[in-house]
Fold:
Amino acid sequence: MQDPSQIIQPAAQTGSVYLDLAMALGAGLLVGLQRQRAQADLAGIRTFPLIALLGAICGILARVFEPAGVWVVAAGFIALGLVIHANRNVGRSAAKDDEKELKAGRGIVTEMAVFVVFGCGLLIVLKQAGIGISIAAATAVLLHLKPSLHKFTAALSDVDVRAIMQFAAISLIILPVVPNRVMGPFSAINPYNLWLMVVLVTGISLAGYVAIRIFGSGAGTLLAGLLGGLVSSTATTVSFSRMAKLRGGKCAASVAAIAIASLVMAVRTMVLAFAAGGDESGEMLAWLGVFTGASVVAAAIAIVPAWKDEPKQSEAKSQFENQKNPTELKAALFFALTFAVVQVLVIAGRQYFGNSGLFAVAAISGTTDMGAITLSTAGLVSRGEVDGATAAAAITLAAVVNTIVKVGIAWSLGGVALAKRVGVILFVPILAGVVVVWWVVMR
Structure:
């Protein structure tokens, strides 16, 4: 056992013990304030600070009596549990005549908060103040958001919950066991990095999918374009082209939604490029910003007349109903296969045909999907195999092709009138993209 004077006295002289106790007190007050406002019957504004101080005291004693100090902490937890158990028994005895209350039962959220706050006080005096205070703050926020969280879960269907669980499987179960080594043709495939990109793209799509399910019933066309673009800008273009056809040529709102979805695609491309390019992505992002900036201009131009052409909520809602679950394992495997093929083609094309091969693969990839070509090309930048400007030109070329495809979709599904308006609006980013590609190639 250490000499207590070697632990407590120097700390007391510098005031660190008192500072730790003050922080523990504050952490307990934060959670206690929320519980008091929620009228919790077990503990409130006074009890939670005392619980945090109890944890702090156990932490101090654990340092004094280490290595046996762990038993002091265990005794504190056990004593706290016994007090809670005794309190609940007294409460049940007092309410034994209230049959309704007994049948309803009680949750254990306050009890769990008690143990968490005890642990926060313990962490603070064990020189983990940042972690302890952060946990206390997160606990208070989580407790306070009860109505919002209940509303959120009520808005989710069984399909939505399955989508979230599937994403958890993709990211938390499959990813950790995937081999982290290069293999395949040209040593182009790292299974771990490949699946990590699947997790990234699926996560972005899932965010849009969940947002669609939550806000879809009351969302207007512009919000539909924004959220739909997170899932798939091409699918959004298909949906709103059909809507414009059904509305007999009244297509200003559809044009705006398509333009917004294209803007989201451009922003999403920059996010993916940064994720794959890492610290070497600065120049690449600067060039990609030209196309994204032009997409902002196009969306802004399209939004102005769209306010007068906003469809009814029931019509906007219909655009959400056919959105597919982006976390289906089949979809994830298809993207992984696509990404692997594009990765090999990009490296092979670059090796045998130089930049022209890279641009050819980019143009072909842009007809269907932006994610695979963006991640593959940005990966070359991170490895120093391609400079940022060349990579940006290839990705921009894919984006230009993808945007032209949207105009074709508008023409085939929405008619000539819609195609003309979409073409005029999206001509801005198309022109900007062509200029970027030409400038990089000709420099």
